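RECORD TYPE: inverse folding
INPUT: structure tokens
STRUCTURE:
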């Protein structure tokens, strides 16, 4: 594996994480609201006191961040695929010494 292919592979993984980040945020908001017994939806923020702090605004932001997937899925998906193809193409060029 060449250094060029390793770098491209790392970039592909980073691109995949950025692509899936909105979905991760939605699951995190759902998990936190379920565990804390709070209500979460897109119509607004609701008070949710956990450990003396109101995390209702955080749950709202995490829950509505799924709309970013409209952009990140196509752009990040294409970027991930292109970077993976580029990494595979440069896999056996020259070895790192």
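DESIGNED SEQUENCE:
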């Amino acid at each position: 594996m060449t250094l060029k292919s390793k770098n491209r592979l790392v970039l592909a993984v980073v691109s995949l994480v950025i692509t899936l980040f909105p979905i991760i945020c939605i699951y995190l908001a759902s998990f936190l609201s379920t565990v804390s017994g709070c209500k979460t939806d897109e119509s607004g923020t609701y008070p949710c006191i956990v450990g003396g702090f109101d995390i209702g605004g955080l749950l709202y932001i995490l829950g509505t961040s799924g709309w970013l997937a409209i952009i990140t899925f196509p752009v990040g998906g294409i970027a991930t695929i292109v970077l993976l193809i580029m990494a595979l193409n440069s896999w056996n060029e020259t070895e790192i010494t």
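NOTES: The first strand starts at residue 49 and ends at 50.
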